[in-house]
Amino acid sequence: MASVAAQYGSAVNVVGINAGESVPVAQRAAQGMGIQWPVIMDLKGQIQTLYKVNGIPLVLILDAEGVVRHRNNGVPSNVHRLLDGLMP
């Protein structure tokens, strides 16, 4: 996701969701993985429920209207083609 965030800049919002870990653990993990985008803490599991998370990591790509265009436990191999197709 780092290459996506770098290539698309402000045209794409990359957001991590942390579920099931404490804030300090999540912060250390994000730092250790070099995550440069915001990470939201889902302490009550509301986001997991909303998006029916059944495995981690789950990658969702939503279009500008919030419609899920990709859902899988990983970044699609054609992520750039997919994102380019969603750009206005």
What is the element layout, followed by pairings?
Blueprint: H1 2-8, E1 16-18, H2 23-32, E2 39-41, H3 46-50, E3 59-62, E4 68-72, H4 79-86
Parallel strand pairs: 1-2
Antiparallel strand pairs: 3-4
Identify the CATH homologous superfamily. Answer: Glutaredoxin
CATH class label:
Alpha Beta
Helix content: 25-40%
What strand order characterises the main sheet? 1-2
How many helices in DSSP terms? 4
* CATH architecture label name: 3-Layer(aba) Sandwich
Give start-end ranges of low-pLDDT stretches. Answer: none
Report what the structure shows.
With 88 residues, this protein is α+β, with helices and mostly antiparallel strands. It has a single domain (2-86), classed as Glutaredoxin (3-Layer(aba) Sandwich). It has helices spanning 2-8, 23-32, 46-50, 79-86; strands spanning 16-18, 39-41, 59-62, 68-72. The strands form 2 sheets. Strands 1-2 form a two-stranded parallel sheet. A hairpin with a 5-residue loop joins strand 3 and strand 4 (68-72). It is globular and about 35 Å long. The mean pLDDT is 87.
Short précis:
The protein is an alpha+beta fold and 88 residues long.
Defining traits:
88 residues, alpha+beta, Glutaredoxin, two-stranded parallel sheet, two-stranded antiparallel ribbon, 4 helices, 34% helix, globular
